[in-house]
Amino acid sequence: MPLLPSPRKRVLIVEDSLVIREFLSALIGSDPRLEVVGAVASGEEALRTLQKTRPDVITMDIRLPGMSGLETTQRIMTERPTPIIVVAASVQSEDLNISMNALRAGALGVIEKPVGFRHQDYAAVSEKLCTQLYLMSEVRCIRQTQSRELSTPSTASRPAASANSSAPRRPAHTLTYRMIGIVASTGGPNAVVKVLTALGPGFPLPIALVQHITASFLPGFVSWLDDTCPQKVVVAEQGQTLQPGHVYVAPAERHLTINSDLTVRLTEGPLVSVQRPSGTVLFESMARALGRHSIGVLLTGMGDDGARGLAALYDAGAFTIAEAESTAVVYGMPAAAVKLGAVSEILPVDLIGERLVTLSGRSNSVA
User: Fold this and answer.
1) Is the pLDDT at 167 greater than 60, yes or no?
2) Rounded to an integer, what distance in angstroms lies between the CA atom of residue 227 and that of residue 60?
3) pLDDT tens per residue across span 86-138
4) Which residues 6+ apart lie within 8 Å of 248 measured at CB?
5) Choosing from 185, 273, 294, 344, which is the catalytic residue?
6) What's the CA gap between 358 and 285, in Å, rounded?
7) What domains, with CATH codes, occur in the chain?
């Protein structure tokens, strides 16, 4: 019997401009994977139509009449949680700040409004938008099946951890930790803010961060983190030395690696797990340079980036943490690390910062 074609993913467009609304409807509707089930001009209308349209994914304009895109996102995530992609008109400070706060409210990603039909980049931009909508529409499916579907090498040398256990498989040692590496993807901005905020001001260790995000939004994302979190947050630069209480974010299209003297090295190497920057590249450099004197944290994200790197850290004696499935927006990356037996401890995101404070030596106990 021939296989039946997969049903198209249902898309709701929320956009106040009639011209852009029709443009997005035509662009998205032309993709065989997607079906536009509604195109509305306001947040209020979007909320009214949710039960009728039952979208799998929503594109959300951030500048709407009446209820803002941010408030609409918050309401949807409370009343009928649905994958939301924020479509921003620009990457300027005001629009970007709203977009970043929408990510914190539960939106999965942010993209710039696509170019017109006659633009030379139209085909590439439209394909990227439609593919992202399709992937985000399957977030729930990925959370349920990612760890089972991922093909990984043998882990005979590392006993498998229980994905539901928060107890450490390896006690934290009493040697001094020199830095922390954090890796996140889909759902990451909100998770990163929670972790960094919990560390509080004056945190004694430097932090390197790989967050998968559209390149044009990276500077604004870093600025937003710097305004929101108690640490100083900057884009990492070639050759700079990591300082305590600072967060160094991998720049767009560059792998971030760390030397033994805590200096930064940026490279243009090949994609790893379809990513550049890659969390695996960061973690592997930490394993080589610092070994057990480092801590790796793998947060929410689609795919498996960071998992092999966390395994390298674990094998080098470092302390490794994966976000628990109970709080991960997308459990792909943490699940991959758990399957590899690469995790010292599995924690809900709200407890990771507290654990890092303890490991850093700021409390009386280290383990």
Assistant:
1) no
2) 24
3) 888 766 666 677 788 888 888 888 887 776 656 666 677 788 889 889 988 88
4) 206, 207, 208, 209, 234, 235, 236, 240, 242, 256, 264
5) 185
6) 24
7) 9-137 (3.40.50.2300), 152-359 (3.40.50.180)
pLDDT for res 196: 98
Tokens at residue 335, please?
């699940």
106 Rama class: left (phi>0) / alpha (psi -120 to 50) / beta: left
Evaluate whether 58 touches 84 at the Cβ level (below 8 Å).
yes
Q: Is 305 a catalytic residue?
A: yes
State whether the Cα torsion 132-138-139-142 is positive or negative: negative
Q: Considering only CA atoms, which of 123, 106, 105 is closest in space to residue 114?
A: 123
Helix H, strand E, coil C: the string for the chain is CCCCCCCCEEEEEECCCHHHHHHHHHHHHCCCCEEEEEEECCHHHHHHHHHHHCCCEEEEECCCCCCCHHHHHHHHHHHCCCCEEEEECCCCHHHHHHHHHHHHHCCCEEEECCCCCCCCCHHHHHHHHHHHHHHHHCHHHHHHHHHHHCCCCCCCCCCCCCCCCCCCCCCCCCCCCCEEEEEECCCHHHHHHHHHHHHCCCCCCCEEEEECCCHHHHHHHHHHHHHHCCCEEEECCCCCECCCCEEEECCCCCEEEECCCCEEEEECCCCECCECCCHHHHHHHHHHHCHHHEEEEECCCCCCCCHHHHHHHHHCCCEEEEECCCCCCCCHHHHHHHHCCCCCEEECHHHHHHHHHHHCCCCCCCC
Give the number of other CB atoms < 10 A from CB of residue 349: 24
Can you read off the two tokens belonging to residue 158? 């590392």
Record the tokens describing residue 104, joined without a space.
């914190």
Query: Per the structure block, which two tokens stand in for 208?
Result: 């390197």
Please indicate whether residue 212 is annotated as part of the active site. Answer: yes
Q: Looking at 137, 305, 344, 360, which residue is catalytic?
A: 305
Catalytic entry in 61, 95, 212, 278? 212
Mean pLDDT, the chain, rounded, equals 85
